[in-house]
Prior knowledge:
By secondary structure, the protein is of the alpha+beta class.
Amino acid sequence: MDKTDIEKIEKIIKDRVYSNNYLLAKHSKAYKSFLELEKHSFITDNLDRKFKELIALGISIVVNCESCIEWHIYQALEFGSTFNELIEAIEVAIEMGGGPAAASTRFAIKVIEYYQNKMINEIKLEDEIANCTGVIKESFKAVADEFNLTIENAPSHPSNITNDRLKELMDKGAQLFGLHYRNKLIGCICIEKANEENTFYIEKLAVLPDYRHKGFGVLLLDFAFRFIRDLGGGKVSIGIINKHSKLKNWYIKYGFNERLIKSYGHLPFEVCFMEKELV
């Protein structure tokens, strides 16, 4: 994301806080009345707050109010909206507002990217690593159950990850990143430089079951692609269970291609290695 975009968004946030405090300090009756109107408009009698925020986002795009767009994206996320839901609200705004609304979405997309970037942070502290271990184990449990994987027949599978193994991976150069949503760690990903020139591995891509099919896995992938490009990487490699067709098709959808299928004596499944060229 361009530095000037970040500066613009953060100035909008700073100016909003300043203006709010200024008008309250001046005891503006008109502004206090507006805040009362806002409070009553967003009371959740029948519609959940996030839906009201999504409605407000659509209107903000149609009227091209950048400060409103930033605020209602932030509020929608705070009250449980996913990024997929934000995009759908934007699409409705485009239908209602036509070309001018489509132009307004350019800023909305920048704001979404801004908050996406703030949700993903590198994990280094002991308690954070432990939390990631828990997320990885829970995220891969269903796969382990499906393929009858146990700590005896597949000790290296992510469903059997331990803090020590995760730290060992990090000691070898892998970087661990956590995805937080509404102040909760819901996903993570490891990125590691491969021996092959310009190639990086992604491992332990995990999203908790309750947060799947909401765009968070793609968010982690997109982050990894940007991070790897910034390091000069041109290729991403992953290894998955070959018979896990659903996961394989998900990666294919996002540009990965099968490169090699390999058997290992210590694993009860074949491993499919997949690659994606970064452009």
